[in-house]
């Protein structure tokens, strides 16, 4: 993720949602990369997070909705692949409404979903987020069309690559499950950390219902939603659902290790190098040492081991901590 207003240079190191960022992440021991897919008006799935692209011409800032651009128009923004060709300026709007130049240390051009399949290490799994605007009410026919366009590309290029589909849009998540049964589908949720008109998006309990009703395989929650409601964990496990998390706290090694103790199946992070190394040091190496020693008590020696009573206390404490 690029957070241009951040004082942390790592948030501005490599352009997000690009082939370069994916292959840079692939150098580390990860299972999947996560990216956002939208479909242009001429039916090409492209990789881009925001609903709008911002640019500047003759001193005037303008915005264009990604899904209202043709592929050719979309690719005109930012760095160009052709030598000597100048792309249109690229700006970004922050959550507090500021418009900033989208400057990163190592830039890269926009890309399509097909190119991503072709140019990223084939052993690396894809968590394909199906991106829709929170402020638009989509008709089912439109959702089905968009999903079929994406599925066509996946069918053509996926081969043996592991794939997960995920979406914050409950109907889109359930529809993509109906349209195919090859790949697991996860429902994305803020876990109650934000409130939406659609109540299905407002809690982990509602997320469980969406998954059970639609035959989905798992939930991807904002990590604060899980830490703030640890009681949902047993219900998720009882429902035989997988649980992944995302959010800024996942860039903190101790928060990732706490989730490992809680039985969470995976984390989505920005600082891939730092977190993968921390997980190796705090989880994998102690486990491997225990296996080598053949010592049944070795697990208790790991600094990650807590009694059930201690873990319960920490989980009760976390919701208080994350509010500050």
Features of this protein?
about 325 residues; alpha/beta; 8-stranded mixed β-sheet; two-stranded antiparallel sheet; about 20% strand; globular
Helix content: 25-40%
Rg from Cα: 21 Å
How many DSSP helices?
Answer: 12
Biggest β-sheet description: 8 strands, mixed
What is the 3D form? globular
Q: What is the N-to-C succession of helices and strands?
A: HEEEEHEEHEHEHEHEHHEHEHHH
Residue windows where pLDDT falls under 50 for at least 5 positions: 297-303
What does this structure look like?
The chain is of the alpha/beta class and 324 residues long. It has a domain at 218-290 and 304-323. It has twelve helices and twelve strands. It has helices spanning 19-25, 71-75, 113-119, 140-157, 170-179, 204-214, 223-227, 232-238, 253-262, 272-293, 298-301, 308-321, and strands at 32-39, 45-47, 52-57, 60-65, 91-93, 99-101, 125-130, 163-167, 185-189, 218-222, 242-246, 266-267. The radius of gyration is 21 Å and the shape is globular.
Question: Which helices and strands occur, and which strands form pairs?
Answer:
Blueprint: H1 19-25, E1 32-39, E2 45-47, E3 52-57, E4 60-65, H2 71-75, E5 91-93, E6 99-101, H3 113-119, E7 125-130, H4 140-157, E8 163-167, H5 170-179, E9 185-189, H6 204-214, E10 218-222, H7 223-227, H8 232-238, E11 242-246, H9 253-262, E12 266-267, H10 272-293, H11 298-301, H12 308-321
Parallel strand pairs: 1-7, 7-8, 8-9, 9-10, 10-11, 11-12
Antiparallel strand pairs: 1-2, 3-4, 5-6
Helix pairs in contact: 3-4, 4-5, 5-6, 9-10
């Amino acid at each position: 993720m690029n957070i241009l207003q951040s004082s942390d240079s790592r948030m501005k190191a490599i352009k997000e949602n690009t082939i370069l960022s994916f292959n840079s992440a692939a150098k580390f021991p990860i299972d999947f990369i996560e990216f956002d897919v939208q479909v242009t008006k001429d039916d090409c799935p492209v990789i881009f997070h925001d609903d709008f692209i911002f640019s500047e011409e003759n001193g005037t800032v303008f915005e264009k909705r990604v899904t209202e651009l043709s592929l050719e128009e979309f690719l005109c923004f930012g760095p160009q692949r052709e030598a000597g060709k100048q792309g249109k300026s690229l700006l970004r709007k922050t959550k507090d409404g500021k418009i900033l130049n989208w400057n990163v240390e190592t830039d890269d051009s926009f890309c399509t979903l097909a190119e991503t399949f072709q140019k990223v290490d084939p052993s690396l799994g894809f968590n394909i987020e199906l991106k829709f605007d929170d402020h638009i009410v989509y008709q089912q026919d439109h959702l089905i069309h968009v999903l079929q366009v994406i599925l066509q590309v996946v069918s053509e290029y996926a081969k043996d690559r592991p794939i997960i589909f995920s979406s914050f849009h409950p109907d889109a998540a359930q529809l993509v499950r109906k349209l195919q049964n090859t790949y697991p589908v996860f429902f994305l949720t803020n876990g109650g950390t934000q409130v939406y008109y659609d109540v299905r998006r407002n809690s982990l309990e509602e997320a469980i219902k969406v998954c059970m009703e639609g035959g989905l395989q798992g939930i991807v929650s904002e990590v604060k939603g899980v830490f703030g409601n640890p009681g949902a964990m047993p219900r998720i496990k009882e429902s035989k659902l997988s649980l992944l998390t995302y959010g800024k706290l996942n860039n903190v090694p101790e928060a990732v290790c706490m989730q490992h103790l809680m039985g969470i199946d995976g984390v989505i992070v920005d600082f891939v190098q730092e977190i993968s190394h921390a997980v190796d040091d705090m989880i994998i190496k102690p486990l491997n040492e225990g296996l080598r020693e053949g010592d049944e008590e070795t697990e208790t020696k790991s600094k990650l081991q807590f009694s059930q009573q201690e873990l319960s206390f920490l989980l009760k404490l976390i919701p208080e901590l994350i509010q500050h």
